[in-house]
Amino acid sequence: MSFHLQPATAPTAILSALAQEQHGLIDLLQQPRKLSHAGRDFWLGELHGQPVVLALSKIGKVAAATTATALIERLGVQRIVFTGVAGGLGEGVSVGDVVVATDFVQHDLDASPLFPRYEVPLYGRTRFQADAALTALLFKAACAALASEPSGGQEAGAVQSFPGARVHQGLIASGDRFVSGAEESRVLRDALMAAGHPVLAVEMEGAAVAQVCQDYGLPFAAVRTISDRADDSAHIDFPRFVDEVASRYARLMVEQFLKTL
Q1: Architecture, CATH, for domain 7-260
Q2: Whole-angstrom Cα distance, residue 117 to residue 103?
Q3: Domain boundaries, given as residue ranges, for the chain
Q4: Which of 12, 136, 149, 166 is the most buried (most CB within 10 A)?
Q5: Catalytic residue check, 97
């Protein structure tokens, strides 16, 4: 049976790569119902009076592109917002900070000599921009979330764990490898910088979702909590950071964001 929402009720899709990043949001979902499609579970319902779909992109660019396409084709979403974690690459981007993407580049894409390094073949571009209006709302939501003083509970602990946390805006790089060594991180950052791409953070999905949304003309924005500096300590306490910090950041930021729609 075909399932497709009408434009008047088209939801906002909230994507994450890892299940832990959405546990708090699923718990808050009103009138939840689950739809399974393309090997994925999509949770539909309402948050703060807004129709939403919660979904996992899964890890990597191909998996993320499949999920984004399913959200658009099957569920008729009107916008996609990605929350998750990333490794910090830019100067001054620290663990516990948040990066709101202005645009995306695939750091592992190289079709030279047919096309310049990093350029997406047949698109004539290297970067895909996030939607400006949606990004502005997400940036305000991230700032409000980090500045908030929750009355108590787990979210309060997450914010208090990084009292000096900052919100950055800029370029995010995506690629199908987990960047976890100091030398690998330096080489990646220097190569992108030399090509005119001063990157702030690195992850594995955003650029793929941005390209799909560009193809469909759909607004897309993304926010990433910095879990590590993409160096030799990148593996340390990663699951704990996602559970105790990133998932709670995501909950605060998504709640603030939805209140502004």
Answers
A1: 3-Layer(aba) Sandwich (3.40)
A2: 17
A3: 7-260
A4: 12
A5: no
